Amino acid sequence: MVGVYSPGRWSGINTPRSAFGFEPHPIIGEAWEALRRSIVNFREQPVGTIAAIDNSAEELNYDQVFVRDFVPSALAFLMNGEPEIVKNFLLKTLRLQSREKKIDQFKLGDGVMPASFKVSHDPVRNYETITADFGESAIGRVAPVDSGFWWIILLRAYTKSTGDTSLAEMPECQRGIRLILELCLSEGFDTFPTLLCADGCSMIDRRMGVYGYPIEIQALFFMALRCALLLLKHDEEGRQCADAIIKRLHALSFHMRSYFWLDIKQLNDIYRYKTEEYSHTAVNKFNVMPDSLPEWVFDFMPSRGGYFIGNVSPAHMDFRWFCLGNCIAILSSLATPEQASAIMDLIESRWQELVGEMPLKICYPAMEGHEWRIVTGCDPKNTSWSYHNGGSWPVLLWLLTAAAIKTGRPQIARRAIELAESRLLKDSWPEYYDGKLGRFIGKQARKFQTWSIAGYLVARMMLEDPSHLGMIALEEDKQMKPTMKRSASWTC
């Protein structure tokens, strides 16, 4: 069994707890006990944490180890000096990647990482097996685009935390990284450096109108590319892959910083767009109709602040706020320092809308009425201000905390953590909350949701010892000049 957590273990005299009087909270011990109960063993080795331990509800697939769900658990264990479970998880998912992946008669790419896996025990033969899900069992049968990115990001976090480079340098790990990147860096018909994705391929794993070029995937893609550059060996195969990464990073950073960014000036420019323009001199490059601007965005946009919008594609701009994508943009330095500061300005200015009484809105605003029926396909779980459709997810607390520390605003994280602490244990660590302010436990939320527990612990430990941020955040690449001048097809 892994070691026992001591709440003061990582405290130091110069940590924010000392500086800001941020004392240990009684629920920390309860959180660690709950997290340890979720540990899954395979042949007497810990290999991950299941999604939830809620005996009051039908299990569905919550008894599986999800790649994206395990990330906050892994960070909690790394921050507590317990890397074994993380190493085992990385190796186990890497071996699953090498399996043949078929959905009906169609074979998936070699680099696809599983969405999840389940450990099963045969009591007759006294034998354990692992079954992976690459999307063939998922709701909507969508393969996870984000799993491979999270795997690379977690491998870098493990390496940074432990100082052990031998895992990443294993031929199997090097091959796994390259296979993931080959899927994403291959040339095709697309004219953009962003990744074209189906609905339901990430944390928002149901139909929510995020098909196209969702901000969450683009930010994770950017971060995984940067982490891969740090992990790849300098042999012939590694150098070839690194060259392709560097070219893509330059194109991707320019595209995202220019065309996905929205502030009051850019909003006003879009409001005045002309349409049906042609040639490289066009100002309205994507032929976005000004009449498609939603009314809410004019009130939502503060005079100081900005954010990366949800999606940009031909004749379409999804102006919704998505928390994970914007926080990852800050942590990966996809956002310039000015943009990172503007995102935090927006969060502070729109605290009621984005944080409310329980951190943190997964997206804002919610779809309602006819729009909800058409876009979600009348999904009863994604009704307005519930689940993915404007629900509040405690797991996002660790991302907000990391972004707040990186931008020098730990007080934002502290305020959000204290809000969460007032309810999470009392409410039995729900998966998500409903309502415009996040006042109600989600109508179908599982209790003792593992990443709600781990997300809180990671947020707490980072605020207590900001040096932990180094395993998940990347500094700005000085060689990648963050030029904000738009191309000839946009106004400057």
Q: In order across it, which strands form the biggest sheet?
A: 3-6-7
Shape: globular
Amino-to-carboxy terminus distance: 58 Å
Portion in beta strands? 5-15%
Folded structure, characterized:
It is a single chain. The chain has 492 residues and is mainly α. Helices cover 42% and strands 10% of the residues. It contains 18 helices and 15 strands. It has helices at 16-20, 27-37, 67-79, 84-97, 146-162, 166-169, 171-185, 215-231, 236-260, 264-271, 295-300, 323-331, 337-349, 351-354, 369-376, 397-406, 410-421, 450-464, and strands at residues 39-42, 45-49, 65-66, 102-103, 106-107, 116-122, 127-133, 261-263, 306-308, 311-313, 316-318, 321-322, 363-364, 433-434, 440-441. The strands form seven sheets. A three-stranded antiparallel beta sheet has the order 3-6-7. A two-stranded antiparallel ribbon has the order 1-2. Strands 4-5 form a two-stranded antiparallel ribbon. α2 (27-37) crosses α18, α7 (171-185) packs antiparallel against α8 and α8 runs parallel beside α12 (323-331). Keywords: Carbohydrate metabolism, Glycosidase, Hydrolase. Its EC number is 3.2.1.26. This is Alkaline/neutral invertase.
Could you write a compact summary of the structure shown?
With 492 residues, this protein is mainly α. The chain has 18 helices and 15 strands.
Task: Name the descriptors.
single chain; 492 residues; 18 helices; 42% helix; 10% strand; carbohydrate metabolism; 6hp_glycosidase-like_sf; Glyco_hydro_100; EC 3.2.1.26; 6-hairpin_glycosidase_sf
List the helices and strands and how they pair.
Layout: H1 16-20, H2 27-37, E1 39-42, E2 45-49, E3 65-66, H3 67-79, H4 84-97, E4 102-103, E5 106-107, E6 116-122, E7 127-133, H5 146-162, H6 166-169, H7 171-185, H8 215-231, H9 236-260, E8 261-263, H10 264-271, H11 295-300, E9 306-308, E10 311-313, E11 316-318, E12 321-322, H12 323-331, H13 337-349, H14 351-354, E13 363-364, H15 369-376, H16 397-406, H17 410-421, E14 433-434, E15 440-441, H18 450-464
Antiparallel strand pairs: 1-2, 3-6, 4-5, 6-7, 8-9, 10-11, 12-13, 14-15
Protein name: Alkaline/neutral invertase
InterPro entries: 6-hairpin_glycosidase_sf (IPR008928), 6hp_glycosidase-like_sf (IPR012341), Glyco_hydro_100 (IPR024746)
Family: Belongs to the glycosyl hydrolase 100 family.
